[in-house]
Amino acid sequence: MKNYLLVVFSLFLSTLLQAQEKEKAPVKGLLSGSFESTGQWYLNDKERDLEQDSIPLRSNSYLSLNYNYGNFTAGVQAESYTSEALLNYNPKFTKTNLGIYFLNYKTKKIDATLGHFYEQFGSGLLLRSFEDRSLGINNALRGGKINFRPNDNISLTALYGKQRTGFDVSKGSVFGFDSNVNVSSLLKKTNYELSFGLCYVGRYEKSYFEKPNFSELTNAYSGRISFSKSNFYINGEYNFKSEDALLIAATNKVTNDIIKPGSAALINFGYSKKGLGFDTTLRRLENMTFLSEREPQFIGIERTSLFFNDRIMNFLPSLTKQNHSNLSNIYVYQAQGGVNIDPTNGIAKAGEIGGQVDFFYDFKKGSLFGGKYGTKIALNFSNWYNLGGTYTFEDQFGNYAPNYKTNFFSSKQKYYSDYNIEISKKFSSKVNGSLSYINQYYNNRYITGAANLLIKTNIIAAESTVKFAKSKSITFGIEHMWADTDRKDWFASSIEYNHNANWSIYINDMYNYGYDIKEKQISNGVDAFKIHFYNFGGSYKKGSTRIALNYGRQRGGLVCAGGVCRFVPQSTGVTLSLSTSF
Amino acid sequence: MRKLHLLLLLFGFLSYSQQNVPNIKTTSIDGKTVSIQTDFLEKDKLYIFSFWATWCSPCIQELDAINEVYEDWKKNLNVELIAVSTDDSRTQKRVKPLVNGKGWNYTILLDTNQEFKRSLGISNIPYLIVIKNGKIVFTENGHTPGNEDKLFEKLKSL
Questions:
Q1: ipTM, interface predicted TM-score of the complex
Q2: Taking the domains of chain A in order of start, what are their residue ranges?
Q3: Closest Cβ opposite residue B57 in set A324, A562, A576
Q4: Which of A89, A116, A252, A275 fits a disulfide with A136 by CB distance 3.0 to 4.6 angstroms?
Q5: CB–CB of B33 and A504 under 8 A?
Q6: In contact, A36 and B11? CB cutoff 8 Å
Q7: Residues in chain B within 8 Å Cβ distance of A361
């Protein structure tokens, strides 16, 4: 019924809008918004031993409306999860409710918000509140925020809030202050660019320990600097989180006995000019799990809020290339920012250290490698390791007492590496193509804590697009992956046909033809046969609206966007999605 | 049944083609503060804002394709393309070398926490809007290979 009311409400609004449009009156009040809905119908799949989910029809819908009048904007976001949220979304997203509401006042210098808001300080290593619907993340802060810009070169932000979790907020209070100064513009220098920023983030949560050995207010500070001159640039950031009770990953409880600070250092530099780009990023994270409540909340018996990326205050993305081929997204790295010392499997880690290098080059038209239309090449290397140091599991009496002492510049076990090259070339005005090679190293035991498996993959992917008259085109791709220590050989292929700017259809398949049952496997008995993961569907788009329909098999595993991943269960079904804005 | 209602509703919304430009400030790739509402107001000039990311291959395909014909467009029309990177801090550092490595001649804006993207209610990229005289006069989501010519025809008619 509630949903029905929602629909009626939107219809009413759309009529109202249309009326406004027709009158063409001088506009004072402006309404804008967007609507997005994804529905899934889960089906039986005999071959996969999959029974239809007990709630086979699920959907996530978001209606966002903003009303602007002069300097004021009021906004709401209604969310509906019916009958329940899509499989493996946070079960705290349930039924239809108001997810976000705010009132904003904005002038040239002041931007103030009451209610829910999103914010990111620096690169987000201390604070990032954002929404990502595909990952089921909405950790908006609810409270107040004020941003003051006396001029274009200085920006100051202060905020207070509690973090959204489901349709509620978590108990911890978050305080923040951020500043950004563009020094070079301020001094009217044009031959270089220099800016810096300082920020503070505090989290207060009352502890249940009678005499906590740590401060109930955790303070985190960060300083950053950015410099560039002609083709060269360098920027760095250092973040420090004050001593706080250590979260024991195995129990999801904090301990009053081990109190540790955290830190994050990031350096990025590069050189780039027309046709050439070179970039290096180095990062070290130690004990940087920063939650709005010290302990994750149990959701069900086995899962916690961490599993659903819920109640996390900061953003620790994996710094690796987000490859776009299908097979290269099976073994994906997740940044290891936290501490986990687990005697049951002998894993001890306190963070990560590593880096990533990118190189882009454009062979000019008419050159030896460029040919008639030019050739582009992109190289990327990333390597990530556990922090070096000493790790202890037990005290002298043999009781579990995790502890560690790390060295700043040293590394231990390798977690992950990805070396890849992509060459793209235009062959004629109608045909272009690309060829990629990807080599990955994935230390499953150290990344996920599960089976002791080292997976080394080699992937070759080729893609080509052929254009025809009247915006018609066909894109096809083939890929092969060798992953001998896990599910072995994979072959993937895809074809997409664009009929015109509105209609397109596609079909793709990932075939794990080399599957062979083994003692240790990441998938651990799931889809334990030579399996085709096929999908096909079509979409219609016009203006800001897109409607897409898909039928196929979803591989169980990680689905990642922007360096954050979500576990999705294996499923077979039909997906309908709609999105529009107005 | 409910989905049917939603569909109807959607087509109701389709009729809105004109929109006001959001009052958003963002940062250019060289660290300058840019106001979307007040910095793109040259009379009758067409500003194409193309939302993209370093990991979005259709976006890069589209920007590569437009780059090929960009000089021709500029000769014929008073037009500027602003490529708005929606990369978050995972991939944002790759924007500058990628843009230069590709040899793109666009103005680049960084929408790190996606405030600009959110203000337009954008769900998926690529997504482009055309702003003329402070109004959004055209919107297109998704990329169809070879659609540059059609887009150019559209621009000429705006």
A1: 0.86
A2: 2-95+245-581
A3: A324
A4: A89
A5: no
A6: no
A7: 101
Q: Which residues in chain A are contacts of B147 at CB distance < 8 A? A: 471, 501
Q: Which two tokens stand for residue A150?
A: 């006396």
**Model confidence at A264, in pLDDT bands (50, 70, 90)?**
very high
Separation between Cα atoms, residue B60 and residue A12, nearest integer Å: 39
Q: Which domains are delineated in chain B?
A: 18-157 (3.40.30.10)
What sign does the dihedral B1-A573-B121-B78 (CA atoms) show?
Answer: negative
**A-B Cβ pairs (cutoff 8 Å, strict):** 226
Contacts of A272 in chain B (CB under 8 A): 96-97, 99-101
Q: Are A30 and B19 in contact (CB under 8 A)?
A: no
Task: Test A32 with B19 for CB contact under 8 angstroms.
Answer: yes
Q: Side-chain half-sphere of A209: how many Cα atoms within 13 Å?
A: 16
Q: Around Cβ A258, how many Cβ atoms within 10 Å?
A: 18
Q: Encode pLDDT of A55-111 as tens digits.
A: 899 999 999 999 999 899 999 999 999 989 998 899 999 999 999 999 999 999 999
**Separation between Cα atoms, residue A233 and residue B97, nearest integer Å:** 10
Cβ contact, residue pair B93, A124, below 8 Å: no
Q: Which of residues 366-385 of A touch B (CB under 8 A)?
A: 376, 378
Cα distance between residue B64 and residue B103, in whole Å: 9
Phi–psi pair at B18, nearest 5 degrees: -105, 135
Nearest to B123 among A10, A36, A322 (CB): A36
Using a CB cutoff of 8 Å and minimum separation of 24, what contacts does A255-261 make? A256/A209, A256/A211, A256/A212, A256/A213, A256/A214, A257/A213, A257/A401, A258/A401, A258/A402, A258/A403, A259/A213, A259/A214, A260/A287, A260/A339, A261/A287
Question: pLDDT digits over A456-474, tens only?
Answer: 999 999 999 999 988 899 9
Question: How far apart are alpha carbons A157 and A450 in whole angstroms?
Answer: 42
Q: Can you state the angle between helices B2-14 and A2-23, rounded to 10 degrees?
A: 10
Which amino acid type is present at position A118? Answer: Y
A422: nearest Cα among B110, B64, B52 = B64
List the single residue in A358, A472, A547 with the smallest CB-CB distance to B97.
Answer: A358
pLDDT in tens, A319-377: 999 888 889 999 999 999 999 998 888 899 999 999 999 999 999 888 888 888 889 99
Cβ separation of B100 and A277 shorter than 8 Å? yes
Lowest-confidence pick of A479-493, B16-30, B103-117: B16-30
Measure A214 CA to nearest chain B CA, in Å: 31
Type of residue found at B125: I
Best A109, A360, A576 member to test B by mutation, with max B CBs in 10 Å, is A360
| Closest CA in chain B for residue A110 | B25
Residue B97 structure tokens: 């070398």
Chain A partners of B70 at a C-beta cutoff of 8 Å?
none
CATH of span A2-95+245-581:
2.40.160
Please name the residue of chain B whose CA is at the shortest distance from the CA of residue A281: B93
Residue A476: enclosing H or E segment and its boundaries? Answer: strand A473-482
* Nearest by Cα to A289 from A254, A333, A251, A332: A254
Cβ–Cβ contact A37 with B under 8 A: yes
